[in-house]
Design brief:
alpha/beta; six-stranded mixed sheet; 10 strands; about 35% helix; about 240 residues; four-stranded antiparallel sheet; Rossmann fold
Length: about 240
């Protein structure tokens, strides 16, 4: 059974050298939201999530909405275990897979094949698992002999194909997705959409951050709105605006 539970979770981080660049620009750059709690010299403490509580179980498909900087990406990364809370507790049961920053974890100096191994290991796969999935990854990317070349020689679209193929090659219990349907060319977007739909149907818990209300309505049965690091679940009439 998949379980993801937050109990009064708070996430904070320091922002350095804020006098040399506006805090607002820094928040945009690191794609997180929150409140400024204190300032000491060149360091400002930002609360990205504040006392967030919810419980997700098998069958929950949650859409995360909110303006840029509201905390959606921070919440996804905290769910994944990338960010650690300074307060509260997290219960996470089941294997977690993420489709967050496409390209994260890739080494541009390594070949496509070497990056498949690298990213697979970072996702917790064994070498046997990675070998068994390589053929599917090859076919999905359609990169052919380019997989033998360093990723630095790839176009952004080619790198996106590789990262997406590896990230969606697992069979997780919990799937966390930062909006990806708008990436790549039209053909890739269609393939990505079909692959994601197949994966979504197979997982226990699905969490999807998006600005696309149509996709939220299509894939999710619960909706969380984030604002300044706080989370409110929408119910009843509040859901009408995303229908």
């Amino acid at each position: 059974m998949a379980v993801l539970k937050f109990d009064n979770v708070t996430v904070q981080y320091p922002v350095y050298n804020s006098r040399g660049m506006s805090l607002r620009n820094q928040l945009v750059r690191i794609s997180t939201g929150g409140r400024i709690e204190s300032e000491a010299g060149h360091v400002q403490l930002v609360t990205a999530l504040k006392e967030v509580s919810f419980e997700l179980r098998d069958g929950d498909a949650v859409g995360l909405i909110g303006h840029n900087g509201a905390g959606k990406s921070t919440l996804l990364r905290t769910m994944a275990g990338v960010y650690h809370p300074v307060g509260g507790t997290i219960v996470r049961q089941g294997r977690v897979a993420t489709v967050l920053e496409l390209g994260a974890g890739m080494d541009p100096e390594l070949s496509g094949y070497e990056n498949i191994i690298r990213m697979g290991i970072l996702m917790g796969l064994s070498m046997n698992d990675i070998r068994s999935k390589t053929k599917d990854i090859e076919e999905f990317t359609q990169l052919g002999d380019f997989l033998q070349l360093p990723v630095r020689t790839y176009s952004s679209g080619m790198a996106t194909r590789l990262m997406f193929a590896v990230a969606t090659s697992t069979e997780p219990d919990i799937l966390l997705v930062d909006e990806v349907f708008g990436t790549g060319d039209a053909e890739f977007q269609l393939k990505a959409k079909e692959r994601m739909e197949t994966l979504i149907k197979s997982v226990g818990i699905f969490v999807f951050a998006s600005h696309n209300n149509e996709l939220i309505s299509q894939y999710c049965n619960r909706v969380f709105r984030l604002k300044h690091g706080q989370v409110l679940e929408l119910i009843g009439e509040d859901l009408e605006f995303i229908s």
